[in-house]
Design brief:
Chain lengths: ~325, ~350
């Protein structure tokens, strides 16, 4: 694949495995997708399908020493991050790529004041004085709409609510005006009312700063409301990807259909039986042939040795063309 | 007919202690004047932001907690102050399942002992009968009989929820309080559990108090929905009505915050400012009016903000900060002509 001009990020056949007592386990199995400039790409799938590991691989923050990237490319603005030096990566993370994780406390240092933590990001990436960094931190808190930012900089993380903490994490991630933000379940731990505030804030900042976003979530509602394109993952693989309207209107893979049909909407007849996906998510292994979803459904496929081809069936709509699961 | 469950003006307050002597310095008014009823085979959904008192209300209903005041009637029998001992025979009819079954299932007990325990406590059946009963329950909740000899931690989240449901079913209850039973599950597993609950209700005529924060799930499973805000019910209506015709400003905001899984729909959201409020020393007047900084907040201090029946079966807090002018006037008229249907808050 050639890094193309319109995509800020291109992930190409990424393979990530973990070394465990049971040998190597492949968590991300040749994942490919791209993020168009200024757009939001959602990654959706059930827990354990490899969403977070994909995100951590892109910024090379895998748990060490067990996590290993075994193949593929991650082109960010044309440069392959998988072949960049560790010092380059440190500059990029928190600089041109901002990262937001689900649990805000994991990104915050409990013993340092909020202001100091935000100011440190500026000090690390820009050569500015302590005083200027502190002022920039106050400005940043104001940008993420924290009331009375000049007072809040003196607070410690535990003094803030979950929603306020997530705003701080967003401030940290956006401090250096990154061109790409990777947000891994940024609102999963929050109430719907606070989630609505945070998603609104992110959309407005994205607009102002012209950022591209990768939004990881298991909530199809959040996907529908915030994303331009969607990547559906199952058992470490991308089974389908498409522009958001196309994916919801015209899902082609049995797994995507199963996910979409299993959620009650406000229109679903009350107490009607919902669609379910039988079986359980397939366990990880290092080399898996055949179609992972057929394995979950207990189907013996005609060709269980070969991995289904991942092909573009209409403009920007890609699907794994397993003879059983590809259902146009 | 006597309702299966009837609670009125229920309050559950927790002491807040401070200072070196740990004197009581205040109270968390977790549940603060709630009245509601649940009929046979009915599901009442309970929604609201975290910390608004849903779990506390649920636990009080099955008397896992001692209420501060008010009354709880189980099939007409007052259990408000029943001792743990005298609760025992009554508890058979009222069970509870939790969000994280891991927390409520003892990891040292086999699945069989977990499900059998209520039968043993109530001295029901002999050993052979209990084995048969447990096998039957496992089958009913969709688990293989072989699961009985394993431990709960060997199972996935969805399967553990099934174990919790089997245990709750052991005594043939009339009502199960379901406290966020699907919140931690993936959507495909969530739908399996919801289907199971719907089928069990159909087969056994069960009633549910179904607590959740996902409103599309609540709408799906509930006959009526109660919206809770800071320890109080602010709106209560048939599920369809709550979604089609919400009257309370908080219900409207909560509904508009749910992400719709349909990219063609572009709604403008009502964004609430600020955070989920604290039930420690709540505002004296309208709690929601206080949060939104409503100009009429001052009027509501000392006012009766209890529920009023604005349309048949549709109850809403009589709160000028949270209603349209039309609805507010209507309620004032109602109040002039009749006593409010529920005790004042
Ligand atoms: N540090 C680790 N060691 C071993 N396996 C891991 C580790 N982190 C994640 N995994 C496995 O990788 C798979 C993908 O995990 P993850 O990306 O976290 O899923 P999710 O889609 O829920 O974010 C899971 O099966 C998980 O168990
Ligand atoms: N045992 C307790 N002691 C003191 N405060 C409690 C206790 N249990 C719950 N609370 C408080 O009561 C309020 C309501 O809690 P809860 O019923 O768990 O809310 P919900 O289930 O709606 O999230 C919260 O502020 C909570 O911190
Ligand atoms: Mg994850
Ligand atoms: Mg709760």
């Amino acid at each position: 694949m050639n890094p193309s001009g319109d995509n800020i990020l291109e992930v190409d056949k990424l393979i990530t495995s973990f070394e465990t007592d049971r040998g190597l386990l492949r968590a991300v199995d040749q994942v490919s997708f791209s993020v168009p400039e200024g757009k939001t790409v959602g990654i959706v799938g059930e827990s354990g399908c490899g969403k977070s590991v994909t995100a951590m691989s892109i910024v090379r923050l895998l748990p060490q020493p067990t996590g290993k990237i075994l193949g593929g490319h991650v082109f960010f603005k044309g440069r392959d991050l998988l072949r960049s030096s560790e010092s380059e990566m440190r500059r990029i993370r928190g600089g041109d790529i901002g990262v937001i994780f689900q649990e805000p406390m994991s990104a915050l240092n409990p013993v340092h004041r909020i202001g100091r933590q935000v100011a440190e990001v500026f000090r690390l990436h820009k050569k500015i004085s302590k005083k200027d960094a502190w002022d920039a931190a106050i400005e940043m808190l104001d940008l993420v709409r924290i009331p009375a930012p000049e007072k809040r900089v003196m607070d410690y993380p535990h003094q803030l609510s979950g929603g306020m903490r997530q705003r701080i994490v967003i401030a940290l991630a956006l401090a250096c005006r990154p061109s790409l933000v990777i947000a891994d379940e940024p609102t999963t731990a929050l109430d719907v009312t606070v989630q609505a505030q945070i998603l609104d804030l992110m959309a407005r900042l994205q607009d102002e700063m012209k950022m591209s976003v990768i939004l990881i979530t298991h909530d199809l509602g959040v996907i529908a409301e915030t994303c331009d394109e969607v990547v559906v993952m199952y058992a470490g693989r991308v089974v389908e990807k498409a522009p958001v309207g196309e994916l919801f209107a015209n899902p082609l893979h049995a797994y995507t259909k199963g996910l979409l049909n299993s959620i009650p909407t406000l229109e679903t007849p009350s107490k009607s039986l919902l669609n379910t996906i039988p079986g359980m998510v397939a366990p990880l292994a290092e080399h898996v042939h055949g179609c992972r979803f057929c394995q979950r459904m207990g189907r013996i496929t005609r060709d269980s040795r070969e991995r289904p081809r991942f092909a573009e069936v209409s403009p920007r709509h890609w699907v794994e063309k397993c003879p059983e699961c590809y259902q146009p | 007919m006597t309702p299966l469950l009837s609670i009125s003006d229920l309050r559950v307050h927790f002491p807040v202690r401070g200072g070196v002597l740990l004197r009581q310095t205040g109270a968390v008014r977790a549940v603060d004047g709630v009245s509601l009823e649940i009929a046979n085979s009915e599901t009442l959904g309970l929604v609201g932001e975290s910390g608004c008192g849903k779990s506390t209300l649920g636990k009080a209903v099955v008397r896992l907690l001692k209420p501060t005041s008010g009354t709880i009637l189980h099939r007409g029998i007052d259990v408000t102050h029943a001792s743990q001992r005298s609760m025992r025979p009554l508890r058979r009819d009222f069970q509870m399942i939790f969000q994280d079954p891991a927390e409520s299932l003892d990891p040292r007990m086999s699945v069989r002992s977990i499900i059998e325990e209520p039968l043993v406590i109530h001295r029901l059946g002999n050993r052979a009968e209990r084995i048969k009963r447990v096998n039957g329950l496992l089958d009913r909740v969709g688990l293989p009989v072989s699961a009985a000899d394993r431990y709960s931690f060997e199972f996935s989240g969805g399967q553990r929820q099934r174990i919790g449901i089997a245990r709750a079913l052991a005594l043939n209850p009339k009502l199960i309080v379901c406290d966020e039973p699907v919140s931690a599950l993936d959507v495909s597993i969530q739908s399996q559990i919801l289907n199971l609950l719907v089928e069990l209700q159909r087969d056994f005529g069960l009633s549910y108090l179904f607590i959740a924060h996902d409103l599309s799930v609540v709408k799906h499973i509930s006959d009526r929905v109660a919206v809770m805000y800071l320890g109080k019910i602010v709106e209560l209506a048939p599920a369809e009505t709550i979604y089609r015709d919400p009257r309370h400003a908080y219900t409207k905001a909560l509904l508009s915050a749910i992400p719709t899984p349909d990219p063609r729909v572009r709604r403008t959201k009502i964004l609430l400012e600020g955070d989920v409020p604290s039930p420690i020393d709540p505002p004296a007047g309208s709690a929601f009016g206080h949060r939104t900084g409503h100009p009429r907040y001052a009027e509501t201090i000392g006012m009766d903000l209890g529920l009023a029946e604005i349309a048949p079966g549709h109850h809403v807090a009589a709160d000028p900060c949270c209603l349209s002018e039309e609805d507010w006037q209507k309620i004032r008229e109602l109040r002039k002509t009749a006593a409010p249907p529920f005790t004042a808050a």
